[in-house]
């Protein structure tokens, strides 16, 4: 696995998602990531702290430049709770839960978020405007309705399948309603 290729592919994937999602400063982007899948293993069985740190630090640096909040989803052993910055949790009135992610209970990306965030806390739920799912980790529960798939130009990060979501307002009003583009 080539680290430079991984970094470049991740940045291109995120650019693709942000272009389609049209996020604004203050919006939230959720990351679900199986480093096991990235390195060619089975989800939850081959975690790589090095890969988790690379993905989270790269993504955080890129999103910080756009003033977009990053939320890093943990694995099923933490009920997919998320690591966020305390300032964001307070601003969004999110309830903090008492846990610190570990490699085998939260996953490498959550552990990396705890390392790279200024003042990390874990929360149970968020409502993000877009997100990236690396390795089929099921981020949909944390993305605002109505969810629309985003098809990035790069379909894999390492060996992991990549999908993404954005949101749009609900269409309401029936057959006589009109909608702006």
From TrEMBL:
Q: What is the protein name given in its UniProt record?
A: UPF0340 protein HW423_08585
The coiled-coil segments of this chain are none
Q: Record's family? A: Belongs to the UPF0340 family.
Name of a matching Pfam family: DUF436
InterPro entries on file: Antibiotic_NAT-like, DUF436
- Recite the lineage of the species: Bacteria, Bacillati, Bacillota, Bacilli, Lactobacillales
């Amino acid at each position: 696995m080539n680290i430079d290729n991984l970094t470049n592919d991740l940045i291109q994937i995120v650019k693709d998602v942000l272009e389609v999602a049209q996020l604004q400063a203050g919006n939230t982007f959720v990351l679900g990531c199986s480093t096991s899948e990235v390195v060619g293993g089975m989800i939850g069985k081959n975690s790589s702290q090095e890969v988790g740190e690379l993905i989270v630090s790269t993504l955080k640096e890129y999103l910080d430049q756009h003033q977009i909040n990053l939320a890093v989803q943990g694995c099923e052993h933490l009920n997919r709770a998320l690591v966020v910055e305390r300032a964001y949790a307070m601003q969004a009135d999110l309830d903090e839960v008492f846990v610190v992610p570990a490699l085998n209970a939260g996953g490498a990306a959550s552990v990396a978020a705890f390392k790279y965030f200024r003042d990390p806390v874990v929360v149970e739920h968020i409502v993000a405007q877009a997100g990236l799912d690396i390795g089929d980790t099921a981020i949909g529960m944390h993305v605002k309705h109505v969810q629309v798939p985003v098809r990035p130009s790069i379909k894999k990060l390492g060996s992991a399948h990549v999908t993404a979501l954005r949101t749009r307002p609900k269409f309401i009003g029936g057959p006589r309603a009109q909608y702006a583009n």
